[in-house]
Amino acid sequence: xxxxxxxxxxxxxxxxxxxxxxxxxxxxxxxxxxxxxxxxxxxxxxxxxxxxxxxxxxxxxxxxxxxxxxxxxxxxxxxxxxxxxxxxxxxxxxxxxxxxxxxxxxxxxxxxxxxxxxxxxxxxxxxxxxxxxxxxxxxxxxxxxxxxxxxxxxxxxxxxxxxxxxxxxxxxxxxxxxxxxxxxxxxxxxxxxxxxxxxxxxxxxxxxxxxxxxxxxx
Length: 218
Hints:
Layout: H1 5-15, E1 18-24, E2 30-35, H2 43-60, E3 66-69, H3 74-87, E4 94-102, E5 108-112, E6 118-122, H4 130-141, E7 145-154, H5 165-173, E8 177-182, H6 183-190, H7 200-210
Parallel strand pairs: 3-4, 3-6, 6-7, 7-8
Antiparallel strand pairs: 1-2, 4-5
């Protein structure tokens, strides 16, 4: 756990971005919790979220020259993260993609700085890895180098095989994936919250049934 991981979990729970109950995942599983980055829907929340992303990026040690956000959720995330990094003394360019290439005006598939050199992908979570796959193809197509992925929370959950979605990305594309917090961080947080401990058992059981460790597949 990074020193800021617990603070992020507390922030996300307080905002309602982490919700508890019963939610159907893309894999068809019934998850006892759900993360929705769309809840960071005002200036104060997005600003604070960007600061958490910036802290996680610095702590990761990943070397990068610019940021890229995948449409649509990645657009506010990459902008907020770029602002937070600039506030911390690291002013880097950023861009995001269009869902459809524009054939008038400035044209092109991306908005913002041109893709070049080492590009760090900013996303909310990795589920099936589709967004990352498309982002990597776009970056490489521009003769730039995808150098890593930063997400808000790593669910640490198996995909179709033994690896988690984040581990599959690392294995397939050869780039590191880091997160602000993980499912283990969420469990550790719940262990300290009497008003939320009712959810601890179901989440811990889900972790045992569908989770992976940090060393699997490495």
